[in-house]
């Protein structure tokens, strides 16, 4: 995917999760203000019925609205609505044509050739061409691009064969490559000659021109108005035109700097839905009449990651197991996440197509057994903590996590983990670290044990997270895991093949991970949206990004037709 090891494209999922580390709260500022006059399409003259307007409140604001520079939740939601990729994910979660009408794959899975959809255009009327595709990925490969996708795409060769045909040549075949092709494209005719940093700070990043289902009609610091467009050559079920019965002709995203203002706007009836609220606010609004909560299971895993480099005590399976079973995952889901998460017993989300229930047994919560496991491994109590066999000094667990300002939920989770370990006799020192500081400690391996959140992606390639080479190269194997057996299973799971064969490979991988306990999974957070009961049409399914939930936006309706 756009997240793979140094020679592949799946590194992005994990680098994004670990370098951008912990799903931070949306940024409330930044980026230039801009305004674009609404188009004539928003009018209601000529006897047409009034346009249906959907209003959604978002906590935080936008900073840079391009596929390569989006950072905040608002950025990513706007990108998902305004831009399009070669493929998109269909009703079953499988890749289906979008800007590409078809593609072919060589027998070894090393080369993909895409044919663009005839008549596909940018929102300024210019045609979408193979050069746009090549330009987008050349920008990601630019040495000046420092975002999470850079490393992963540099070993992929992209060639525009003609104006409507483009080929990707991969150094390593990947079963999830088509998922990567959902990456939205950039318009070369508007951005050619600009560096990645120039694109991120350009007027385009404030008033983008995409090739997606909605165009920016106006935007400023408090609101973005998006109008439905029907790109030339598109034949999409559910496509609507202005004033059609119930479908969303216009989407207005309103940005709020704080939670209280957002909640007040929703309860006052000014919004049809709200996104980005913490679990407590979601639970409070869910109790109101006339509301519904859309809980999208996410691919973001929150886990305890021990540093296994050198003479680490965490090289011992008995120690890792003891620490893991001392944690009450159900209590964390209940008390920290207020039920808006799924407990994690493995490194593949239960909502994923690759999940194997039979190979992912429930991790027991048993603090008595945890203590017995430590004693069986030769550990003794002394000096206010546990002392490893052959050592004289008690072990102090130095736990790091994002600080409360970076991610309050992750820090609260770390507090629960620290309390669990203290309850079995460990001395635990918990330190909250800034986003950048945490990323640096993880990548350089200068930490003991950490609570982190990792975006595993919809095609959960774990090689960058656990592959031996990744402890020495890209730094995405932050635990420093070294296992030839695991490496083989990771490679098998990422190979192209039938869905049946890939599920078998993933099942073997999950079985190994369950018995080895290399990482201590805690939960998969939900992406919760509180909406008016008048909104119908959204279908809940697994998401890896805030914008993923708009996959079926063309089928959304408002019962009151507003």
Molecular structure report:
By secondary structure, the protein is α+β, with helices and mostly antiparallel strands. Helix content is 27%, strand content 22%. Strands 1, 8, 9, 10, 11, 12, 13, 16, 17, 18 and 19 form an 11-stranded mixed sheet that branches. A 4-stranded antiparallel sheet has the order 4-5-7-6, covered by helices on one side. Helix 16 (484-494) runs antiparallel to helix 17 (499-516). The protein is globular and about 75 Å long.
Provide a concise account of the structure shown.
The chain has 562 residues and is α+β, with helices and mostly antiparallel strands. It has helices spanning 11-19, 73-82, 130-141, 150-153, 177-180, 188-191, 196-201, 259-267, 279-286, 317-325, 329-335, 367-376, 408-423, 435-444, 463-466, 484-494, 499-516, and strands at 53-59, 87-89, 95-97, 100-105, 111-116, 156-162, 165-170, 214-219, 223-228, 250-256, 273-275, 291-306, 341-343, 380-382, 385-387, 396-402, 427-433, 449-455, 520-532, 535-536, 557-558.
Give the tally of β-strands. 21
Q: Which blocks of ≥5 consecutive residues have pLDDT under 50?
A: 1-46, 231-245
Strand coverage percent: 15-25%
What is the terminal separation in angstroms?
39 Å
What is the residue-averaged pLDDT? 87
Structural class, judged by helices and strands?
Answer: alpha+beta
Q: Over the alpha carbons, how many angstroms does the gyration radius reach?
A: 24 Å
Counting DSSP H or I runs of 4 or more residues, the number of helices is 17
Shape: globular
> Share of helix among residues?
25-40%
Please summarize the sheet with the most strands: 11 strands, mixed
């Amino acid at each position: 995917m756009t997240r793979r090891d140094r020679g592949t494209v799946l590194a992005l999922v994990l680098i994004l999760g670990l370098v951008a580390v912990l799903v931070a709260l949306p940024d409330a500022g930044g980026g230039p203000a801009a305004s674009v006059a609404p188009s004539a399409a928003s009018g209601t003259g000529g006897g047409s019925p009034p346009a249906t307007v959907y209003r959604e409140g978002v906590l935080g604001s936008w900073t840079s609205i391009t596929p390569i520079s989006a950072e905040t939740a608002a950025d990513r939601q706007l990108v998902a609505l305004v831009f399009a990729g070669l493929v998109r994910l269909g009703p079953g979660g499988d890749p289906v044509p979008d800007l590409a009408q078809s593609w072919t794959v060589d027998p070894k899975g090393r080369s993909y050739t895409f044919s663009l959809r005839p008549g596909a255009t940018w929102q300024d009327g210019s045609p979408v061409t193979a050069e746009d595709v090549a330009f987008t990925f050349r920008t990601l490969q630019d040495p000046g691009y420092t975002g999470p996708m850079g490393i992963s795409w540099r070993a992929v060769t992209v060639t525009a064969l003609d104006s409507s045909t483009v080929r990707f040549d991969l150094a390593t075949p990947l079963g999830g490559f088509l998922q990567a092709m959902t990456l939205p494209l950039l318009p070369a005719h508007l951005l050619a000659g600009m560096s990645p940093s120039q694109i991120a700070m350009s007027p385009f990043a404030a008033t983008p021109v995409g090739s997606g289902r909605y165009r920016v009609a106006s935007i400023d610091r408090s609101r973005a108005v998006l109008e439905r467009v029907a790109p030339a050559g598109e034949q999409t079920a559910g496509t609507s035109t202005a004033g059609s019965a119930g479908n969303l002709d216009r989407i207005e995203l309103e940005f709020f700097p704080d939670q209280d203002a957002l909640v007040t706007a929703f309860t006052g009836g000014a919004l049809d839905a709200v996104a980005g609220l913490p679990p407590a606010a979601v639970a409070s609004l869910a109790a109101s009449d006339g509301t519904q909560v859309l809980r999208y299971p996410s691919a973001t895993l929150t886990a305890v990651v021990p540093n296994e480099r050198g003479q680490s005590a965490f090289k011992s399976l008995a120690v890792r197991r003891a620490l893991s079973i001392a944690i009450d995952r159900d209590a964390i889901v209940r008390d920290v996440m207020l039920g808006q998460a799924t407990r994690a017993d493995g490194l593949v989300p239960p909502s994923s197509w690759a999940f194997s229930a039979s190979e992912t047994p429930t991790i027991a919560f048993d603090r008595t057994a945890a203590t017995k496991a430590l004693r069986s491994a030769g550990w003794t109590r002394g000096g206010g903590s546990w002392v490893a066999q052959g050592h004289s000094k008690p072990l102090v667990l130095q736990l790091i996590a994002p600080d409360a300002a970076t991610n309050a939920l992750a820090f609260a989770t770390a507090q629960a983990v620290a309390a669990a370990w203290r309850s079995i006799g460990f001395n635990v020192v918990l330190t909250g670290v800034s986003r950048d500081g945490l990323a640096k400690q993880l990548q350089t391996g200068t930490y003991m044990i950490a609570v982190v959140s990792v975006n595993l992606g919809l095609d959960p390639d774990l090689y960058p997270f656990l592959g031996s080479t990744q402890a020495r190269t890209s730094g995405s194997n932050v635990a420093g895991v070294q296992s030839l057996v695991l490496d083989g299973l990771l490679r098998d799971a990422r190979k192209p093949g039938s869905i049946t064969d890939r599920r078998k490979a993933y099942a073997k991988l999950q079985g190994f991970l369950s018995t080895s306990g290399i990482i201590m999974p805690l939960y998969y957070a939900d992406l919760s949206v509180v909406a008016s009961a008048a909104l119908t049409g959204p279908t809940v399914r697994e998401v890896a990004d805030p914008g993923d939930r708009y996959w079926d936006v063309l089928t959304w309706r408002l019962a009151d037709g507003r």
